[in-house]
Design goal:
Structural class of chain B: mainly alpha
Order of helices and strands of chain B: HHEEHHHHHHHHHHHHHHHHH
Shape of chain A: globular
Shape of chain B: globular
Helix content of chain A: over 70%
Oligomer: heterodimer
Low-confidence stretches of chain A: none
Mean pLDDT of chain A: 90
Helix content of chain B: over 70%
Largest sheet of chain A: 2 strands, antiparallel
Largest interface: A-B, 29 and 30 residues
Low-confidence stretches of chain B: none
Strand order of the largest sheet of chain B: 1-2
């Protein structure tokens, strides 16, 4: 909860730091604020306090995911120090918007009332609509903003409609009250409530880009500045998934039979669409967008097997995904800057140009592909174990086949890195940029070797 | 503790090379692998011949999922650890004359692959086994893709996708078994004692089999192999054919046979038919090969086919034969690829047609080459004889028809191997071989080590078979009382 306050104040502080002539000030303020937010957040561990008339419930679940989001954003903001792509909005404003968005994310992982869920989604999304369009003079960026905004508004309408229907049946917005109502109805769940629930699935499915609600994702990811794309595919995805999981774990655990088949189909569809489409992408940025869709699909498996897949498997998966994705995007930013292209071919000859970058790329993509000893492997292993335990063998087999497709396109990048390229000028890296890459790569391996430190949290 | 030492020595050496980027990388790698061999011999001397797991080391790793870092060795593991430790110095040494770019990385990756192999052969935890199984692949991928031949990128890519696809199914199998254990544990003993009905065993059997069949490779999963052997740096070709193939056969010993005996009974005949088909198919293709490395690659498919047939025959001759043949085939593969590399160094070609008459120029090389070839075609007094003999006996006991057809492996093997020898060593010298210089004394000595072992194993096979006898019996008769240490 204190984290939410710190982040909101930080957003204002970042905004005002833009008045200073010192351009670095905004970055420093943001980094300090994020570190502070993370610290006060961790201090709340094991307290489980309810705030604002029980609108927010800051339990360990909320704290863990808030921590992940704050740290991920810390890494992304650090990348700004050496960021070269032209963003035509001053840094201070970008940071302010990112902070407001993150504040929305914190609400999303700690809500105990559906109104807060809706508020969280809106607070998370509105800054993103602006950020997506922050390359004002670029057509694709404009397209991204408009597309994201229109479809986002559409999804919000679904979400709101769903909340209203559920309120109509249960006379409460509170997730515990809804759960209690369902429990007391003794299997006679009113159809309206189920309809409301499906609307929530559609609305949230849009936010986490689950198929068939994913069509905005590739265009928006590709059109936005890469650093914003990094934020969207990590922090926003974490918030969306955590909110989604919280909803089903707290409000609808008693009617799993109603929603498990639907989510199972969504999961299978999402990972298949994401992976198969990713194979055909020549742009790495777009490929990572589809890979993000695919990972959302794997994560949905955790929902289906909610009985045996503890929240820690979602937490671990999201951390592994965030770490590897930030790492991959950090490399992509350098490639974009030095070659002017985001195509797979731009990675060719990287091993000659910078062995360091080649190594980092390898770790990031091996982890995304899910091969030991990286975090990506253990994440999949842990998730799939839970799914098989819950009896979803077929879904797991589909997921495994999808992982193989994933290996195909992730390794296309790694293979390009080690094949001969035309360009052989060495790549210059900024210190902070290099530090972020090292931290994420080391984390990807370290978490893979010692997963116990995360999975014992929740 | 000594198992941990075996595992960490190559890792530490590799880390040292990565960090120091030492110009003496070759020598350091060679010293490390020889030191590893010394350690392995110490283990072998202390080993007691029974079916118990010895040299145990157990650390808690991921307790909430029942995953321990548990390693140790029984006879089967020990023989393969010995094989790895014995062959690695040759695998390192064969590249000594190459001037690779970034040598330190090349040798460091070789050492990492060795650590992974030792890990696979000593893991006593299903998760750990899978972990090492995949871990071996990463150094091999980079070795092949960074230092391979012209078509390395496409070939390595295919190899990688293929093997990972297989191992994912194995992972599913492991997870399923894990969920059946009481209390949830990945411990090898716990996984092996899971009781499954016949149908479930069938599923688990195929999940594991695909992973192992791709790695071995069993026909029709072999298509990655000849290209990969031809395009990889010679050290990697040796590593793949001599050691990584054995991971798969070892996997069958460790997981398929103890966990799914009913499925082996039910599906074994299909696997053996596939294996025997592979033997005939690969042998026929080997006969028409024009390139030395490709010929040995296809010969390797044929030999592995016989091993796979013997294992799935699931009787003591078949299993002992497979165990023994793993050693002979490993040594034979390293020996043949070593000689081919020497010929390539001196002539710049691996095409059989452009060779010839080497015998007259280089009698030492030709003699040693002949011994290696006789060992691969199962000549009595060489190690190849006992392996193939036991394997054929095992298959014969399983089915007379299949056993008879498998015998063709020896006949066809003699055809392609001797034809190759004749065309490359005998006859008139060609343009490329007319100035062929014989191998130096140090080279002769190095190859003589292999010759000595080939004859030692050929004359005293029981020394090796006895080490694995008890564990093999406990796989065949799991309920029989076993000697406990």
């Amino acid at each position: 909860m204190n984290a939410l306050l710190v982040l909101s104040i930080a957003g204002l502080a970042a905004l005002f730091s833009g008045f200073s002539h010192n351009k670095k000030l905004a970055v420093i303020v943001s980094l300090l604020a994020l570190a502070a937010a993370f610290t006060v957040n961790v201090l709340d561990w094991n307290t489980a306090v309810r705030y604002y008339n029980d609108m927010l419930f800051v339990d360990n679940y909320a704290i863990a995911f808030t921590g992940v989001m704050a740290l991920t954003m810390l890494l992304i903001v650090a990348l700004f120090v050496d960021y070269k792509e032209s963003v035509e909005v001053p840094n201070a404003e970008i940071f302010a918007l990112l902070f407001f968005s993150l504040a929305g994310g914190v609400m999303l992982v700690s809500y105990s009332n559906l109104l807060m869920l809706f508020l969280g989604i809106e607070i998370l999304s509105i800054p993103l609509y602006i950020l997506a369009g922050s390359k004002r003079h670029t057509l694709t960026s404009n397209e991204a903003a408009i597309k994201y905004f229109l479809l986002g508004a559409f999804a919000s309408a679904f979400l709101l409609f769903g909340i209203v229907l559920i309120y109509g049946v249960t006379a409460s917005f509170h997730i515990d009250a809804i759960a209690a109502y369902i429990k007391n109805s003794n299997g006679q769940t009113p159809g309206l409530l189920v309809a409301g629930m499906f609307m929530l699935i559609a609305g949230l499915g849009f936010k986490i880009s689950a198929a068939p609600f994913h069509f905005w994702t590739p265009d928006v990811y590709q059109g936005s500045p890469t650093i914003v794309t990094t934020f969207m595919s990590t922090v926003v995805k974490t918030a969306g998934i955590a909110a989604f999981y919280r909803l089903f774990a707290y409000a609808f655990p008693a009617i799993t039979a109603e929603w498990i088949p639907t989510i199972a189909v969504l999961a299978a569809l999402t990972m298949t669409v994401g992976n198969v489409t990713a194979v055909f992408q020549s742009s790495v940025k777009r490929m990572l967008a589809y890979s993000g869709i695919a990972h959302a699909g794997y994560l949905l498996i955790a929902f289906v097997s909610i009985s045996s897949n503890p929240a820690s498997s979602v937490l671990y998966y999201l951390i592994a995904y965030a770490v590897s994705t930030v790492c991959a995007f950090a490399v992509l930013m350098v490639i974009q800057h030095t070659t002017g292209s985001e195509e797979v071919d731009g990675f060719k000859g990287l091993s000659k140009r910078s062995p360091f970058l080649a190594f980092i790329t390898t770790v990031a993509f091996i982890s995304l592909a899910g091969i030991p000893p990286t975090a990506g492997f253990f994440a999949k292993f842990y998730l799939f174990s839970g799914a098989i335990k819950a009896g979803h063998l077929w879904l797991t087999i589909i997921a495994v086949l999808n992982s193989c497709i994933g290996i195909y396109y992730y390794f296309r990048v790694i293979t390009a890195v080690y094949s001969t390229g035309s360009d052989s000028t060495p790549v210059e890296l900024g210190t902070v940029q290099k530090a972020v890459m090292i931290i994420t790569a080391v984390l990807a391996v370290l978490l893979g070797l010692f997963p116990e430190m995360v999975i014992s949290l929740l | 503790m000594i198992t941990i030492a075996l595992l960490s020595l190559p890792i530490l050496a590799a880390l040292f090379l990565f960090i120091s980027r030492n110009a003496m990388a070759k020598q350091i790698a060679l010293i490390a692998t020889v030191a590893e061999l010394v350690l392995a011999v110490v283990v072998a001397v202390q080993f007691e011949q029974n079916s118990a797991v010895q040299f145990l080391a157990n650390y808690s790793w991921i307790p909430s999922l029942g995953i321990d870092f548990k390693v140790g060795m029984d006879g089967i593991s020990l023989l393969l650890v010995l094989l790895t430790a014995f062959l690695m110095p040759f695998i390192v040494h064969v590249s000594f004359k190459k001037n690779y770019d970034k040598e330190w990385a090349f040798y460091a990756l070789l050492l990492l692959a060795q650590a992974g192999l030792i890990g696979v052969f000593t893991s006593l935890n299903g998760f750990l086994f899978y972990f090492f199984w995949e871990l071996v692949l990463i150094p091999v991928y980079f070795l092949a893709i960074l230092w391979g031949g012209e078509r390395r990128v496409a070939v390595t890519f295919k190899f990688f996708i293929y093997t990972v696809l297989g191992s994912f199914f194995m992972l599913l199998g492991f997870i399923y078994l894990y969920l059946q254990t009481p209390g949830g544990s990945f411990d090898m003993a716990a996984l092996q004692s899971v009781q499954l009905d016949r149908e479930t065993q069938g599923w688990i059997f195929w999940a594991f089999f695909i992973a192992f069949a791709i790695k071995m490779p069993v026909f029709p999963f072999h298509t990655w192999q000849p290209d990969m052997y031809a395009e990889s740096p010679v050290s990697v070709t040796m590593l793949l054919s001599a050691l990584m193939v054995k991971m798969a056969v070892y996997g069958v010993f460790r997981w398929i046979l103890p966990v799914t005996p009913l499925a082996v009974e039910e599906w074994g005949n299909i696997v053996i038919i596939l294996s025997v088909t592979g033997i005939i198919y690969a042998s026929c293709i080997a006969i028409v090969q024009k390139n030395l490395r490709r010929l040995v690659a296809y010969a390797s498919i044929a030999h592995v086919g016989l091993m796979s047939a013997g294992v799935f025959a699931f009787n003591s001759q078949g299993l002992e034969g497979a165990m023994f043949q793993m050693l002979s085939h490993g040594i034979g593969a390293v020996a043949l690829f070593y000689v081919i590399e020497l010929i390539y160094e001196k002539t710049g070609t691996m095409e059989i047609a452009s060779l010839g008459g080497i015998m007259s120029k280089a009698p030492r090389l030709a003699t040693i080459f002949l011994i290696f070839i006789l060992s691969t075609i199962a000549m009595p007094l060489t190690n190849g004889f006992w392996g193939e003999f036991l394997l054929l006996l095992g298959v014969y006991k399983y089915s007379i028809v299949l056993g008879t057809i498998s015998t063709l492996t020896i006949v066809l093997g003699a055809v392609y191997m001797l034809r190759m020898y004749q065309a490359s060593m005998l006859g008139k010298t060609s343009v490329l071989t007319q100035n062929f210089e014989d191998i130096t004394i140090p080279e002769t000595l190095i190859l003589s080590v292999l010759v000595v072992v080939i004859f030692w194993m050929g004359v005293q096979p029981s020394v090796f078979i006895d080490i694995a006898k008890h564990p093999i019996e406990s796989i065949l008769y799991p309920l029989a009382p076993t000697v406990i240490n």
